[in-house]
């Protein structure tokens, strides 16, 4: 994935393509439905297994950004557009906040935590809580 910025031409689209290719490599499909976030969680779980074996975080940020781009796309395709940025005034640089319907969520952080920490940081639970139930997180 090249160094395009969130909100810039093609950044999200490029990330989505990369996420879909990775899902395809695991022989699963992503269809932009809310339910497909469960598949994202499973794929990230496979990366978590690999991370536990290798104990290397090399390349994980790119994976997290790609799947976050997919999550943002699912939200926007099934609801309303938001604003995906690179930096957050409170949480700092490279936190990739997504401002949507008056709330700010951090799908890159969700994806990184799922890869590093495993099932306790379930993406589907966060998605249901902060997107489908439309509750504003204090810090997700």
Describe the protein in words.
The chain has 140 residues and is mainly alpha-helical. The protein has a single domain (11-132), classed as Four Helix Bundle (Hemerythrin (Met), subunit A). 53% of the residues lie in helices and 6% in strands. It has helices at residues 11-25, 36-54, 60-78, 107-117, 123-132; strands spanning 83-84, 98-100, 103-105. A hairpin with a 2-residue loop joins β2 (98-100) and β3. α2 crosses α4 (107-117). The radius of gyration is 14 Å and the shape is globular.
List keywords for this structure.
mainly alpha; 53% helix; 3 strands; 5 helices; 3-stranded antiparallel beta sheet; disordered C terminus; Four Helix Bundle (Hemerythrin (Met), subunit A); single chain; 140 residues
Helix and strand topology:
Blueprint: H1 11-25, H2 36-54, H3 60-78, E1 83-84, E2 98-100, E3 103-105, H4 107-117, H5 123-132
Antiparallel strand pairs: 1-2, 2-3
């Amino acid at each position: 994935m090249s160094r395009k910025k969130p909100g810039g031409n093609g950044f999200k689209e490029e990330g989505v393509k990369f996420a879909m290719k990775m899902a395809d490599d695991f022989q699963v499909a992503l269809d932009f439905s809310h339910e497909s976030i469960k598949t994202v969680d499973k794929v990230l779980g496979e990366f978590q297994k690999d991370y536990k074996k290798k104990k290397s975080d090399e390349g994980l940020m790119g994976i997290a950004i790609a799947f976050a781009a997919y999550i943002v796309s699912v939200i926007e395709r099934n609801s309303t557009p938001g604003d995906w940025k690179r930096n957050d005034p409170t949480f700092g640089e490279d936190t990739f906040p997504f401002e949507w319907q008056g709330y700010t969520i951090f799908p890159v952080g969700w994806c990184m935590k799922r890869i590093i920490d495993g099932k306790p940081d379930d993406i589907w639970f966060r998605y249901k809580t902060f997107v489908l139930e439309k509750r504003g997180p204090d810090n997700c």
